[in-house]
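Title: Request for sanity check on DUF222 domain-containing protein prediction

Description:
We are preparing a figure and want to confirm that the structure record we downloaded matches what your pipeline produces today. Could someone re-run it with the sequence below and paste the raw structure tokens into this thread? We only need the token string, no images.
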Amino acid sequence: MTSPGALHTATAVVERAAELAGSAWDDLDGPATVAGVEAVVAARALLDAALLRGIDRLEATDALRPLGWASTKDFLTHLTGGHKGTGGGLVRTVEQLRDLPEVQTALDTGRITLPQARAIASKAHTLPRVHEFRTAVATRMLELVFF
């Protein structure tokens, strides 16, 4: 996706999310509400995957420095309204997922959420630095999430 394409798509998603937030959820019956909530969670997972891709690009291009930001971490903490360390946690997740492509793919396809991806990646990175071992453990953790 080109930069204008990514920006256009992100803007369209914001507009659709605003529409969804203003929808009449009271009109849904139980099963439709369950399906709606499941769809929102899947959409959120995909948006989180897109966010991590954007963060990776911010880091690669150093695009924030000319805007006066000391780091991507500081910018993200400000942007998300998080507490100290929020931005750093997102940047760390981007870095950790580079070593765990199966976990990244699961997030990119909406099969897991960002909190699940972060939990798997952070635990895998506490293990000895043997790539095959870390990826095997991450794969097993993914299996536990799916079943």
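Thanks, this matches our download. The mean pLDDT is 93.
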